[in-house]
Amino acid sequence: MFGHQFYRVLADELTRRGFAVLRSDKRGIGESNGSFDTATTADFASDIEAGVAFLRSRKDINPQRIGLIGHSEGAIIAPMVAGKDPRIVFVVMMAGNGIRGDQMLLDRTRKQQMAGKSATEIERELALQKAVFAAVTADVAPAERESRARQLYLDAQKRYGRAWSPDELAPLLSPWMRSFLASDPVPVLQRPRCAILALVGEKDQVVMAEENIPALTRALAGNPNASVKRLAGLNHFFQTAGTGAFSEVAGIGETIAPSALELIGSWAALHSAP
Fold this sequence. Notes:
Blueprint: H1 6-16, H2 41-56, E1 67-71, H3 73-84, E2 90-94, H4 101-113, H5 119-136, H6 142-160, H7 166-169, H8 175-181, H9 185-190, E3 195-201, H10 209-219, E4 226-231, H11 246-249, H12 258-272
Organism: Massilia violaceinigra
Protein name: AB hydrolase-1 domain-containing protein
GO molecular function: carboxylic ester hydrolase activity
């Protein structure tokens, strides 16, 4: 991604510390089988469960010392799996959200639009997004969901000239997006009893620290082995960044900040020790 091999660098760090590492693409990506377009986060979690079962079938793997590290969506998949599997010994959440999917997108819109937009324009866009999210997650036939959402965009275009295209609507109608918008990470985060390390970059513009750090802290408060950390100066991919914008990622020399690699590696080693 963006000219970097983030997960290869992370896997190398862990391998140097003595871990056996299994990396997997999402279904339908790379050489993985299955359909990506029809999959939801729950489907991806079942794929990780299959990966854990594969590791436990190997004689060179200690089945009682398996941990999970996930990034972004993978950071919520990891506790989903660990919550159903008490033999998972640790979870590292890299840029995992602590607030609902729909609220996360609304917060992102609010932050991205603050520059150069009036308060009225920002509130109009947020109101439109909320209405569209409600339409696409409604428990009605797919054609009705699409019709309701399309009409909301058409009304906004007519009332205040808000430009739109069908390309803007299409991703919101996917099974993945519908499940994401309605997803609440709190019950997921409260189920695992294993050690959990939740990390959010200070300059992450996807999973914003201001909203997600407090939410993660509250959700994990009942787990004495959970820790939530804000990593100063790091973006969504845990690189040392200027603003945290995606446009910077390819031009940053480091793939993952050494401080982040050290933290993840040392913490995982500590919590996987016999």
